[in-house]
Amino acid sequence: MLYFQASRERKIVKAIGYARVVPGENTTDALTHQKARITEYCRANGLKLERIYEEIVSSEIDLNEGRPQLVLALNSLETEDALVVVRTDRLSQNRQFLTELKNLMEKTGFVVHTMQGPTDLTKVKSSIEVTSM
Length: 133
Hints:
The protein has one domain: Resolvase, N-terminal catalytic domain (Rossmann fold), CATH 3.40.50. The chain has four helices and six strands; from the N terminus they run E-H-E-H-H-E-H-E-E-E. It has helices at residues 27-44, 63-66, 68-75, 95-108; strands spanning 15-21, 49-56, 82-85, 111-114, 123-124, 130-131. The chain is globular. The chain starts with 14 loop residues before the first strand and ends with a strand.
């Protein structure tokens, strides 16, 4: 099992949003909806949203080959920052990628927030399931 967990005591310095839709979805409306939810989530939880990165790409695309906005978002995160997404599957549905993301989180010290979990706790049990504690 793969778990992402962050301490409830962390002070979040900044938040970076990431919105992704797949080609063929109603892209403009879907991106607008995700960005509005990310913005509202940050406002409601006292997070300082600095930027929302967005892209239209399948989650099957390799991070290094076709996800430049996600790479920029991840590269902009520092210790105690938050990456905010609507759902974990907006990042990826690939277990290997999520494992790499967990390792990057541990190394860098940022946390992942989703609309599906508590404010500062994301617990991933499978590649696409998110549950609350």
